[in-house]
User: Fold this.
Amino acid sequence: MNYTSEMEKAMQQNHGIGYAEYGRKLDKRLEVEKEREKSYEKSRQVVNEVERKIHR
Assistant:
């Protein structure tokens, strides 16, 4: 995969590793993906809560 310097910077800031390490190490990749899943679920909860409050 080709990635940009902005993508590399975001990966470093958000997960503390670069794309090269992410691609080489399965355990790091799994850790990052678990974090992403948690973040996604949290954001879905916030959206659902806001929608519930709007539609009262």
